[in-house]
């Protein structure tokens, strides 16, 4: 008996076979084992308990070594309990309440006013209207201070964590000391137990340590970031060295139609954890400035501690433009230092985390702790090399995640890191300072070819800027000095043309190099526009996808299934009759539970997105948030800007139609004229074209709005810009010089721009250019032709960008001061209409294809434009957004302030109907797709106020004359309908909508623009189609990997249960091939599947528990189960089969339990089921290309099929022995296996090897299994049957016409 112990280190075996019956059956077992075991199995070492020369270190828990550990545990428990008790008593004596700070997260387009006002036309003024993309955020701040006793307790807790690791090392050294390594069946399976002396005591210690450490590390990781604070004492903020910050969780749930079980979970979660109490926390150390200011940084924002209150660090230089002009003298050095103390350095406090911090943060998660505690079971139970392989796989997965995280941080750092020298006015002198030391109120001298380090307001001079990194706008933008008025400063609103934004580049400062361009700092650091955009990337609103809500349900179901299998496995092990110690049985049950509940499941749901990122990058599409790729796969509505997105960036100036007097003195529009083609052009119109613009010069190049550049270029005049002088224009020969003394920039709310011009006779004239609707309102009715509106709309319907031009001469004798003193309202009133200006807005060649691809993919394209509805209608018709046979009805505000609807098509009746009549009479046509709606921004505001817009939203195709804030509202209203929404624009006015959409893509030359999650450098609208294709493919790939892991766990449970039923365990090579080759190679190969070349009519499911995925997994599983049972029945009926004599074996010596027919049948049957499930889940459906195009998967799968088939059919050889194939006669006379030897000693007869005939028939059975799986997946789960069922019982979702 002692010899067996020495061979296997299993002291428990003596107790379990002590009965007389067992002793009789096992008579001579160990002598036989020593004699018969060859080099295949271990021959040692001898157990230390049976080796007189070996001294056992720990024989009893009363020795000093265990007592020392117990004393340490006692110190930890007593110290920590005492501290928590004292902490509670202190809190009861002097309660500390958190300081509550509420802050509104303002969007880019928000103004200070909360109450929208209406203009003369009843529309909402963009200057006063604001949109909050996110709700107000509530922050709670609680002060804490360390104590010596608390730090001592925290140190003890850290040492306790190291204590568990040290104990594991001690146990494993005891388990494997002196182990042998001589082949695949002798890979360091057991040692001599020189510390604890026996397998039994070693197992008991391991069991206790495993449970205690599992609970310890799980509790620690669930409270990561808070543990240290448990050992600090709450105190007033004035005394705090650490601030505990609690913030309410802000998340957007993307799943509306969910299963009842999800609704139940939501209700239970709401009752257990009310929404108001859900949040995240962070412990932040308090920092000190040189002069003693106390502050801390939370999510990049600086908060100053003032006594027991917290104040967000921000400094307002002024509210009005005049306030800023009053600061033109700059700051003193002392004032600048004081402001640095108050608001901090001018930098975005983001740095890539040190690699070691990323590694620790990534590995120390619930996911990896679960892996650790499970794989430590494998390592202890003699699966040293298999566990090492699985650990390697996990480390590879973690390395990929770490690499991706590090790369994303580096990309963001490229955007945030910037330090330059700035020329600042300090004490009346210009001095050069580090840009990080700039503060609000500093006056800077702007230079050309300079990247702006903060937000600035121009006080003097002009600039030409490149804003593409911030807005995506590729064309240079001209900036002007802000007027000295009492107007409220709105940097991203009406005064954006006076603002230099952080991160943009000044291409040219002034007209000449020596020009002084002065600007004042308005905000620094995270308070800048760039800082706000970076903040939205670093701390985005959490989006909860459908599978995020369902994953806990799946895990719960798997745990329940695992518990059932746990109980069954215990029963099966006892039934089989193998000798075993209780720890061994527990280990085997836990190993099965680990395989069922794969720790790779969360990774599987994201793995498809990593490959998609690289493929998108190769197509010129860059991604800052990979999770949005999967979200893009579910998009149902895609919104498009018009100009520069669906149409070409540049517009051609076609000409103008001026007012003419007829014979009866009535006014009419003349024929189309072009300055380039017609020799005579009306003088007033010519001067208006020459002056009414914001064009500037950048070297020899004209820059500005492309409409105005084309307009000015067409007349052939010269633009003259010089320092300290008003800009002027003149004919090419220098005659007719006109000086532009004042320019009112284009205003979205007004839809106009205007200039005051001085002619050569010192007379002042006003020219105003804007939307034809607005010019109509501002002009004398008598100056307008009768056909004005009809003609303008007709041109717009033909694809023209139509503007109106009007004029007014100021009274004779008006001085320059009087002209400049006029308010803008007075400038733009009582005008004389001159002409309609026509520009051609051509559709991009690829727009029609992109729109058709989206419609074919069941995605509804929508247009949101600042242009008029008629031009939008033409572009929508041209690109196929609106079908040729479909009529469009426009909703606009009538004179009485209500919304009226009329046909946009010129051939339709011009009668106007009300909203109620539209809904009553035309709803069927709208639902049938025979009618589409268009709506203007003003009408949209009124309809939204009455909730009618919600009813008409999904029938509206064109949103015209929309301001930036309105674009955001359209995106959010579609989202509120439960739709996943995309947005495509070229930046600029689209920034808010791009960020509000679930997947925004900016057409910009910037590689990593902060405008939106995706940026297309190709600037092609086809990038939208590529994004959706990759999104659908990535989502389907992620779910394929998820199903593979679920199937892996389910089939592994069947394998284990069958093994425990027969009392067998597969050999080492079998497990290496299952866990290593199958999971590693095929799992990776599945991620390489390419997306479909075209968008299909359906989107991939995002539900883990939906019929498609459940049917696919359960169907394949049941087919596999049937064939597995069939193979076992087939085996048992085969002549010569002898059941494995489990009662003569010991479970702990698992390497001896694979020499039987059962192992061969189970391994070959289930292994081909494993790899085939990976293959069939990669078929592709309509979202990915056919599996044959995945070369790596095809080679890996069919290579394994051929290899395993050959291995099964080969005759017995040293090669087949590696897998313990039953072509070897295990139960031969004088067998190598000690189990078969004892079996024969107790009356058993030798039995033959598995015949080639049987193995060949088994192979055909396995092939039939493979074919059945493929048929199920391709015909039923994802084939015609699934499509028929989906059509018969469609998902409940909003319906609309494409």
What is the element layout, followed by pairings?
Blueprint: H1 2-8, H2 12-16, H3 20-25, H4 29-36, H5 64-93, E1 99-104, E2 136-146, H6 148-176, E3 181-183, E4 186-187, H7 199-222, H8 227-230, E5 232-235, E6 242-248, E7 251-253, H9 260-272, E8 279-285, E9 287-288, E10 294-298, E11 301-306, E12 309-312, H10 321-325, H11 333-343, H12 355-363, H13 366-380, H14 384-416, E13 421-426, E14 429-434, E15 443-446, E16 450-451, E17 455-460, E18 463-466, H15 468-471, E19 477-479, E20 499-500, E21 505-509, E22 517-523, H16 529-538, E23 542-544, H17 546-576, H18 582-596, H19 601-618, E24 621-623, H20 627-632, E25 637-640, H21 642-646, E26 652-661, E27 667-669, H22 683-691, E28 696-698, E29 701-703, H23 706-715, E30 718-720, E31 728-730, E32 738-747, E33 752-758, E34 764-771, H24 772-778, H25 788-797, E35 800-809, H26 816-821, H27 824-827, E36 832-840, H28 847-856, E37 860-864, H29 869-878, E38 887-893, E39 899-903, E40 913-914, H30 915-927, E41 931-936, H31 937-945, H32 948-952, E42 956-960, H33 964-976, E43 981-985, H34 991-996, E44 999-1003, E45 1014-1016, H35 1022-1062, ...
Parallel strand pairs: 7-23, 25-37, 25-43, 37-42, 38-41, 41-42, 43-44, 44-45
Antiparallel strand pairs: 1-2, 2-5, 2-6, 3-4, 6-8, 9-10, 10-11, 11-12, 13-14, 13-15, 15-22, 16-21, 17-20, 17-22, 18-19, 18-21, 24-45, 26-27, 26-36, 28-29, 30-31, 31-32, 32-33, 33-34, 34-35, 35-36, 38-39, 39-40
Organism: Riccia fluitans
Protein name: Cation-transporting P-type ATPase N-terminal domain-containing protein
Membrane topology: Multi-pass membrane protein
């Amino acid at each position: 008996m002692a010899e067996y112990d020495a061979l296997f280190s299993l002291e428990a075996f003596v107790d379990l076979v002590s009965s007389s019956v067992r002793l009789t059956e096992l008579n001579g077992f160990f002598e036989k084992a020593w004699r018969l075991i060859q080099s295949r199995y271990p021959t040692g070492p001898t157990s230390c308990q049976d080796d007189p020369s070996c001294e056992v270190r720990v024989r009893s828990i009363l020795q000093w070594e265990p007592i020392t550990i117990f004393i340490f545990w006692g110190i930890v428990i007593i110290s920590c309990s005492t501290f928590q008790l004292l902490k509670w008593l202190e809190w009861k004596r002097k309660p500390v309440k958190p300081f509550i700070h509420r802050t509104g997260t303002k969007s880019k387009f928000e103004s200070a006013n909360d109450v929208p006002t209406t203009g003369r036309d009843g529309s909402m003024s963009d200057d006063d209207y604001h949109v909050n993309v996110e709700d107000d955020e509530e922050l709670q701040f609680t002060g804490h201070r360390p104590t010596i006793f608390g730090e001592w307790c925290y140190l003890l807790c850290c040492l306790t964590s190291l204590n568990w690791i040290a104990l594991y090392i001690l146990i494993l050294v005891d388990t494997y000391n002196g182990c042998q390594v001589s082949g695949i069946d002798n890979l360091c399976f057991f040692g001599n137990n020189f510390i604890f002396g026996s397998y039994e005591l070693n197992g008991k210690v391991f069991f206790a340590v495993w449970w205690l450490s599992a609970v310890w590390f799980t509790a620690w990781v669930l409270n990561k970031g808070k543990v240290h604070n448990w050992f600090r004492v709450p105190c007033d903020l004035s005394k705090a060295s650490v601030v505990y910050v609690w913030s309410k969780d802000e998340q957007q749930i993307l799943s509306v139609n969910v299963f009842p079980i999800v609704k139940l979970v939501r209700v239970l979660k709401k009752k257990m954890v009310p929404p108001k109490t859900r949040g995240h926390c962070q412990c932040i150390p308090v920092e000190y400035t040189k002069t003693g200011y106390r502050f801390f940084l939370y999510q990049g924002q600086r908060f100053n501690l003032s006594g027991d209150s917290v104040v967000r660090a921000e400094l307002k230089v002024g509210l009005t433009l005049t306030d800023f002009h009053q600061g033109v003298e700059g700051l003193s050095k002392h004032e600048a230092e004081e402001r640095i103390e108050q608001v901090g350095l001018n930098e975005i406090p983001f740095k890539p985390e040190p690699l070691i911090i990323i590694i620790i943060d990534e590995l120390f998660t619930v996911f990896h702790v679960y892996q650790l505690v499970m794989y430590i079971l494998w390592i202890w139970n003699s699966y040293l090399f298999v566990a090492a392989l699985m650990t390697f796989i996990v480390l590879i997965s973690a390395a990929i995640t770490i690499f991706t995280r590090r790369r994303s941080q580096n990309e963001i750092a490229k955007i945030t890191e910037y330090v330059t020298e700035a020329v600042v006015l300090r004490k009346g002198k210009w001095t050069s300072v580090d840009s990080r030391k700039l503060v609000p109120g500093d006056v800077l001298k702007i230079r050309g070819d300079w990247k702006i380090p903060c937000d600035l307001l121009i006080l003097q001079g002009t600039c030409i800027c490149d804003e593409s990194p911030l807005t995506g706008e590729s064309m240079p933008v001209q900036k002007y000095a802000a007027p000295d008025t009492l107007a409220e400063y709105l940097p991203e609103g009406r005064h954006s043309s006076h603002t230099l934004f952080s991160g943009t580049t000044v291409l040219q400062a002034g007209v000449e190099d020596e020009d002084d361009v002065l600007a004042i700092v308005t905000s620094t650091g995270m308070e800048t526009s760039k800082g706000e955009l970076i903040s939205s990337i670093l701390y985005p609103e959490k989006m909860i996808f459908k599978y995020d809500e369902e994953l806990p349900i799946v895990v719960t179901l798997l745990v329940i299934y695992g518990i059932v299998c746990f109980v069954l496995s215990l029963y099966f092990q006892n039934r089989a009759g193998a000798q075993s110690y209780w720890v061994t049985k527990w280990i085997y049950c836990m190993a099965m539970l680990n395989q069922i509940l794969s720790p790779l499941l969360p990774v599987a749901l994201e793995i498809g997105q990593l490959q998609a990122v690289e493929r998108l990058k190769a197509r010129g599409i860059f991604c800052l948030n990979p999770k949005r790729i999967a979200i893009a796969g579910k998009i149902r509505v895609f919104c498009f800007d018009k100009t520069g997105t669906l149409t070409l960036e540049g517009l051609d100036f076609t000409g103008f139609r001026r007012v003419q007097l007829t014979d009866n003195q009535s006014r009419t529009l003349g024929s189309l004229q072009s300055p380039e083609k017609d020799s005579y052009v009306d003088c007033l119109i010519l001067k208006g074209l020459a002056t009414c613009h914001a064009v500037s010069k950048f070297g020899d190049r004209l820059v500005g709005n492309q409409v105005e550049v084309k307009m000015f270029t067409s007349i052939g005049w010269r633009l003259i810009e010089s320092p300290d002088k008003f800009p002027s224009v003149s004919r090419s020969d220098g005659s007719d010089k006109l000086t532009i003394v004042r320019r009112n920039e284009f205003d979205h709310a007004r839809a106009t721009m205007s200039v005051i011009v001085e002619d050569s006779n010192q007379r002042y004239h006003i020219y105003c250019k804007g939307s034809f609707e607005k010019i109509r309102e501002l002009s004398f009715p008598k100056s307008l032709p009768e056909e004005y509106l009809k003609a303008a709309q007709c041109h717009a319907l033909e694809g023209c960008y139509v503007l109106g031009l009007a004029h007014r001469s100021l009274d004779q004798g008006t001085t320059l001061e009087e002209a400049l003193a006029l308010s803008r309202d007075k400038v733009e009133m009582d005008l004389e209409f001159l002409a309609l200006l026509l520009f051609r807005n051509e559709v991009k060649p690829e727009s029609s294809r992109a729109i058709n691809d989206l419609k074919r993919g069941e995605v509804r394209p929508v247009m949101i434009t600042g242009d008029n509805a008629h031009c939008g209608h033409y572009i929508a018709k041209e690109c196929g957004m609106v079908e040729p046979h479909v009529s469009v009805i426009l909703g606009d505000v009538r004179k009485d302030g209500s919304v009226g609807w009329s046909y946009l098509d010129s051939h339709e009746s011009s009668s106007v109907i009300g909203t109620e009549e539209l809904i009553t009479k035309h709803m069927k046509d709208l639902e049938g797709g025979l009618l589409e709606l268009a709506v203007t921004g003003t009408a949209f505001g009124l309809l939204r106020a009455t909730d009618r817009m919600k009813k008409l939203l999904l029938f509206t195709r064109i949103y015209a004359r929309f301001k930036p804030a309105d674009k955001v509202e359209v995106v959010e209203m579609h989202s509120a309908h439960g739709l996943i929404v995309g947005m495509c624009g070229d930046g600029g006015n689209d920034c808010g909508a791009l960020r509000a959409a679930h997947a925004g893509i900016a057409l910009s030359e910037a590689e990593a623009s902060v405008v939106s999650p995706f940026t297309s450098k190709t600037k092609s609208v086809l990038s939208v189609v590529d994004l959706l294709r990759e999104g659908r493919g990535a989502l389907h790939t992620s779910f394929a990997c998820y199903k593979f892991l679920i199937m892996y766990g389910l089939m592994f449970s069947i394998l284990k249960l069958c093994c425990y039923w027969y009392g067998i365990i597969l050999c080492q090579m079998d497990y290496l091939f299952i866990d290593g080759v199958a999971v590693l190679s095929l799992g990776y190969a599945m991620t390489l599947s390419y997306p479909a070349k075209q968008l299909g009519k359906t989107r991939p499911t995002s539900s883990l528990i939906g019929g498609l995925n459940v049917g696919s997994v359960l169907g394949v599983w049941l087919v596999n189960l049937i064939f597995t049972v069939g193979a076992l029945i087939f085996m048992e009926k085969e002549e010569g089969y002898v059941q494995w004599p489990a009662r003569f074996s010991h479970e702990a010596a698992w390497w001896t339990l694979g020499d039987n027919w059962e192992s061969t049948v189970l391994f070959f049957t289930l292994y081909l089921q494993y790899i085939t499930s990976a293959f069939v889940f990669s078929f592709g459906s309509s979202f990915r290309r056919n599996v044959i195009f995945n070369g790596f998967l095809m080679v890996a799968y069919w290579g394994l099929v051929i290899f395993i088939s050959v291995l099964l059919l080969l005759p017995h050889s040293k090669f087949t022995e590696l897998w313990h194939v039953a072509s070897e006669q295990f139960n031969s006379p004088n067998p190598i296996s000690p189990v078969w030897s004892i079996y024969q000693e107790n009356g058993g007869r030798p039995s033959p090897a598995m015949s080639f005939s049987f193995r060949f028939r088994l192979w055909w059975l396995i092939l039939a299994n493979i074919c059945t799986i493929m048929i199920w997946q391709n015909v039923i789960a994802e084939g015609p049957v699934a499509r028929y069922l989906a059509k018969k019982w469609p998902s409940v979702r909003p319906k609309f016409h494409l």
